[in-house]
Design brief:
Layout lengths: L1 E8 L6 H10 L12 E7 L9 E8 L16 E9 L3 H17 L4 E7 L22 E3 L8 H15 L2
Parallel strand pairs: 1-3, 1-4, 4-5, 5-6
Antiparallel strand pairs: 2-3
């Protein structure tokens, strides 16, 4: 089976760890425990994409790195980045767009996706998103780690793109 390393990037508290746990363990834990350094998860994409089976090795970073993450050893051999923001904290959306720009500059041709998280607590906040973060745009996913909405969809789309691009 093909295995590819993917990064979860974003500010502290946007829900990166909650997304990883929802994806891998299919559960949500309300107790917030910040990640120190990095946590690594393994997720077999089921059902497999048309290109064949793939395992995602999900590196959940602690969010303290900012742009410095792109020169960190953690990024070595990363096939993709899933960049996460909290829809209820506008500053995290701006950081997400900056991280995307930095990732694309540091790793041209690699897949990236923007995950706007915490939609379960953001009634109406979706309407105030910048146009580049609108639902339905390619590479943009609106999720809730708490309910599980669109979490697998985001990672499955990433797995398909990784295989399609030969990353």
């Amino acid at each position: 089976m093909t295995a590819r390393k993917v990064m979860l990037l974003g500010e502290i508290g946007v829900g990166k760890s909650s997304l990883a746990r929802r994806l891998v363990l299919d559960r949500f834990e309300a107790d917030y425990k910040p990640t120190l350094g990095v946590d690594v998860y393994r997720y077999d994409v089921v059902p497999p994409p048309p290109q064949g089976p793939i395992t995602l090795i999900v590196w959940d970073t602690d969010g303290n790195f900012g742009d410095a993450i792109f020169s960190h050893i953690y990024m070595k051999e990363a096939a993709a980045a899933f960049i996460v923001a909290d829809v209820t904290r506008h500053a995290t959306l701006e950081t997400m767009l900056k991280l995307r720009h930095g990732f694309r500059a540091a790793f041209p041709g690699r897949y990236d996706a923007l995950i706007v998280n915490k939609l379960d607590i953001a009634a109406g906040d979706e309407a105030r998103l910048p146009p580049e973060l609108a639902a339905g745009r390619s590479g943009v996913f609106h999720t809730s780690a708490k309910t599980g909405d669109n979490v697998r969809k985001a990672f499955h789309a990433g797995a398909e793109a990784i295989l399609r691009r030969g990353l």
